[in-house]
Design goal:
CATH class of the largest domain: Alpha Beta
Distance between the termini: 51 Å
Number of helices: 15
Strand content: 5-15%
Bound molecules: adenosine-5'-triphosphate, magnesium ion
């Protein structure tokens, strides 16, 4: 989205999207990330006490992690915990193909973020959390070269460095490629959080959250979590939401609603991100033990007992006792 500096002062919308605190969702995180987050929030809430001893809270964080691991979700959640709107900047709104213009936009962005944003219906600007997505695109390593394009690139990185240094608000940058970020820029961030792919415990929680109001007995949930090893939370969310969509819409379209047919249809339609590889479920499809152990029709939370046999007889050929499913894993 391009705007002309001469016509008017740029607004938040020229750089990306405003995320409001009330729209935030709490991500399911590994313990190490939860601890780092809690530490940072406590620091921010203890600003006065820190000032007394001559320091302030850390203000600039870099989140790195594979696609769909929750970088944007976590930044939004954190902003909400601070009660601030978040301006999510898209790099294409800053990077220009015109020599010199990118540096100028970086300046305008930081000026705007520093001044705060006036929300609809308000008269005064409020502070924001500046969130820059795909930060690697803005801060690729400076190269030693005498080409004009590279010179201009280096100048942009220098402008970014300078503005980062001067900026006194909260800022979070996110990247899928931590290694592409210029070392000098990397050092300007005082918090680095790596969002790993979720472990088994987090996978089970993520599946349970996104399957709700449907649910799985503990054993079947455990097997499904295992079948999603190496999956991102985003992929698990997509699977669960598409499964619920199939359950509601499939019968209206006269689709084959046997469990194996539904699962195979679903898995064929969802492509895991190429950078993450395919979780086991995509190799075995509906023959996976996790699918065999899944009760069908999928029960709602409260409709099953954890010690029950997990499949129901309506499923035609899909009757598997939980104990057998566990033994087979
Ligand atoms: N840890 C998590 N817990 C629950 N849901 C999550 C989690 N991480 C991601 N999601 C869900 O997955 C989707 C993608 O998440 P998000 O956009 O935050 O990932 P990202 O790391 O910013 O991805 P990208 O690298 O593509 O920008 C969202 O719908 C979000 O709700
Ligand atoms: Mg993101």
């Amino acid at each position: 989205m391009y705007f002309s500096k001469r016509e008017r002062k740029p607004t938040a919308e020229d750089f990306g999207q405003l995320f409001l605190p009330e729209e935030a969702m709490q991500p399911i995180l590994a313990r190490s990330v939860r601890t780092a987050l809690m530490e940072w929030l406590t620091e921010i809430w203890s600003e006065e006490a820190l000032r007394e001893v001559g320091i302030g809270p850390r203000r600039k964080a870099l989140f790195s992690g594979k696609p769909g691991t929750g970088k944007t979700t976590l930044a939004h959640h954190l902003s909400a915990r601070l009660g601030l709107p978040m301006l999510a900047v898209r790099p294409e709104c800053v990077i220009s193909k015109w020599v010199g213009e990118t540096g100028q936009r970086i300046g305008e962005l930081f000026d705007l973020a520093q001044a705060g944003v006036t929300l609809d219906g308000a008269t005064e600007p409020v502070p924001i959390v500046l969130f820059i997505d795909e930060f690697d695109a803005l801060s690729r390593q400076r190269r030693r070269s005498d080409q004009a394009a590279d010179d201009s690139r280096n100048e942009e990185v220098n402008t970014l460095l300078q503005r980062l240094e001067q900026y006194s608000g909260f800022m979070i940058a996110a990247t899928n490629y931590g290694e592409h970020i210029d070392q000098a820029i990397w050092r300007r961030f005082d918090i680095h959080i790596e969002l790993e792919l979720p472990g088994q415990e987090e996978r089970e929680q993520i599946l349970a959250r996104y399957l709700s109001p449907f649910g799985l007995p503990r054993g079947a949930l455990c097997l499904l979590g295992q079948a999603f090893e190496t999956a991102s939370p985003a992929l698990m969310r997509q699977f669960c939401e598409n499964l619920k969509r199939q359950i509601i819409i499939g019968p209206k379209l006269n689709l084959d609603m046997r469990k194996t047919a539904v699962i195979d249809r679903l898995l064929t339609a969802i492509a895991p991100h190429p950078d993450l590889g395919k979780p086991r479920l995509w190799s075995h499809m509906s023959k996976d033990d996790a699918v065999k152990a899944m009760p069908w029709p999928l029960p709602r939370i409260g409709e099953f007992d954890d010690d029950d046999v997990v499949a129901s007889p309506q499923a035609g050929g899909d009757v598997v006792a939980f104990t057998r499913a566990r033994g087979a894993s």
